[in-house]
Design a protein that fits this description.
about 50% helix; mainly alpha
């Protein structure tokens, strides 16, 4: 019941065609043509021209990104600090409750 059943390879049915034999052909070189005249290479990248308006937009965008990332990081740090402080307060309260419980006995 728990043994895997391995499928058997089916045998081909019908007419089987024999493999085709490919015969090599000879390569005839073509007539030599003169090389084409050299063409001046096109610039690989277009030149970017910054106008004062686009430079100001880039500076403004970069400043906005830095401010947003800074705000996110500061808020995460604040969340960790608040969580740590609350865990410390809970630990002090539990320690005080357990200490007062042992003094009463």
């Amino acid at each position: 019941m728990f043994r895997p059943k391995i499928p058997t390879m089916p045998t081909p049915t019908g007419q089987v065609t024999p493999p085709v034999v490919v015969e090599p052909t000879t390569v005839v070189p073509a007539a030599q043509t003169p090389p084409p005249a050299p063409v001046a290479p096109a610039p690989s990248r277009p030149m970017v021209q910054l106008t004062p308006g686009t430079a100001l937009a880039l500076v403004g965008g970069g400043t906005a990104v830095v401010l947003v990332v800074g705000a996110v990081l500061v808020s995460m740090l604040l969340a960790v600090a608040i969580t740590g402080a609350s865990v410390a307060v809970c630990a002090v309260v539990l320690r005080s409750l357990l200490a007062s419980e042992t003094k009463r006995r």
